[in-house]
Batch of 2 targets.
Target 1
Amino acid sequence: MIDKEKIIEGIKLFLEGIGEDITREGIKETPERVAKMWEEFEKERSFDFKLFEEYSNYSEMIIVKDIPFYSMCEHHLLPFFGKAHIAYIPNKKICGLSKLVRTVRAMALKPQVQERLTEEIADIVQKELEPMGVGVVIEAEHLCMSMRGVRSPGHCTVTSSLRGNFLSDIRTKEEFFKLIRQ
């Protein structure tokens, strides 16, 4: 659970630390806005991962691709954003497709690194569905690289996490990567 008062005080200190007048019209409500934003994020992080076991005969790959997301780099607290692709091969259970989208959003709404985000999504799908295999690919632009440091916008960082037959069967892996590129 988040501590709204700590967020408000922290943002006030941050703004003062960078030389802002926290009583200025455009900024005076910013600490409360930031705290409210994190409260909204916290609410979105929990959801029911609904399963449908009545479709137990379906055994081909299921993919939800181009799932948009926004996250926050834990190193610089700057956004990174992009799209995620999730696939799994059922083993007697399928989920509502929106649950895959919600999984991406829930895991992205916290300070994070893309590599861990990719792994966490794969871990949740694996845990909840116990499928034959899981594949997750994330493509993202990191503002910590675009706005600061190298200051080179437009780059795409790609991470992947594979489980089960996505890892052990080259044909499954190739099919997954081919389908997300279409």
Target 2
Amino acid sequence: MTSLFAQEIRLSKRHEEIVSQRLMLLQQMENKLGDQHTEKASQLQTVETAFKRNLSLLKDIEAAEKSLQTRIHPLPRPEVVSLETRYWASVEEYIPKWEQFLLGRAPYPFAVENQNEAENTIQNEAQR
């Protein structure tokens, strides 16, 4: 009977050791989980900060680019704008004639007399 009693005491001590070790491991797991949550929150904060910084830098770069573009390519002078407008109006006027010619449905759109007229117009423009 004493041997059973001694074995019972030994098993009870072993049980206490196992329970104690289990509690210690559970505490370590909780601590590690808490550390992981803290680290993850820190990383998330770092990512958000970096994102905001990058967004700010991108806006600054775009503003600088826009500023440089206006300095490099200022708005054209009114004479140039007028010339460009007249050019495109002329192009739009002659598109149907050239289109028919290019499709093979009409003769060359400018006759010799039109060429003389065009030369006179150019000379008149140059004299102004």
